Amino acid sequence: MKTSAIAVSGLRKAYGDKTVLDGIDFDVAAGSVFSLLGPNGAGKTTTVNILTTLMSADAGTLRVDGHDVVTGTKEVRKAIGVTGQFAAVDELLTGRENLRLMADLKRVRSAGQVVAGLLERFDLTESADKMAATYSGGMRRKLDLAMTLVGSPRIIFLDEPTTGLDPRSRRTMWQIVRELVSEGTTIFLTTQYLDEADELADRIAVLSDGRIAAEGTSDELKRLIPGGHVRLRFTDQAAYRSAAAALREVSTDDETLSLRIPSDGTQRELRAILDWLESAGVEADELTVHTPDLDDVFLALTDRTNTDDRTNTDDLTNIDSSTTSKEIAR
Ligand SMILES: Nc1ncnc2c1ncn2[C@@H]1O[C@H](COP(=O)(O)OP(=O)(O)OP(=O)(O)O)[C@@H](O)[C@H]1O
């Protein structure tokens, strides 16, 4: 079994009489990327602030790198790095000076060398001696992440790391995150961009109304949402019509000559559909599998008009990856 980098149980936090986190549990395996998603104001930053010891919880047990955040605050702080929505970058210092300051604060040995290495890794060497105030948003975020990496923290909290970045800079960030993970670093990621979570996260938790509405791999979450289907496309009208007549439980699209068969997209179900087509003598020109994307999942799980209907989403929490999708879906 993998060791936990972060283990959270029964986390509660209220601001005054407003409960933001209403007893949440999750576990982040060491060397993985865990993404916490949720609508604005769901409590993502609050969770990050509590895990990074900036704020205290009202209740719950939280361990980071094996240390309790209350009794082992010092050890937790040593093990983590945090980049926030409001960067720690000092605009009046150069990139190199910002990094140097961080290296001195963390008492890093061979600081000059470490700083030079980070400037190079983040492609900031050319601008290293310019004031950070002159940096673009993307450069500033890169500098922020570079500062987080000083001292090689084992666990990194990235709170919306690519907000406002152009597509190329986002991809550079993603590449860096992947490199960090391949080196064994654990990443706790909050993001507004679902494609980012889809791209990077090993496991995703969706926070809604103070609870974890669902948790699993991106694929597991997508399978929870109805809408997955197999689409058969025909070029021949007659073949289309006879297939539509032969197959029950399909929806038809006469304009594009396509049939839509509900499916969760698993190998087992695909095999059943193919057998079914074979026995009905249906041969389509094109067969494609469509699964709902993470946007669909997010919208379905965080739909505020559905919040009274808790039973649906309560069933979806903590999906074991060994559970088959059929078991999840039904
Ligand atoms: N210090 C505070 N005092 C009172 N209320 C707060 C405080 N900090 C946050 N809140 C409230 O708690 C809720 C959760 O805030 P939080 O910043 O954790 O959400 P978030 O999921 O990070 O949101 P966003 O996606 O907008 O960054 C919000 O309703 C916010 O207004």
UniProtKB/TrEMBL annotation:
The keyword ATP-binding applies. Residues 319-330 have a biased composition (Polar residues). One of its GO terms (molecular function) is ATP binding. It comes from the Bacteria. One of its GO terms (cellular component) is plasma membrane. Signal peptide: none annotated. This is ABC-type xenobiotic transporter. It comes from Streptomyces kanamyceticus. The lineage of its organism: Bacteria, Bacillati, Actinomycetota, Actinomycetes, Kitasatosporales.
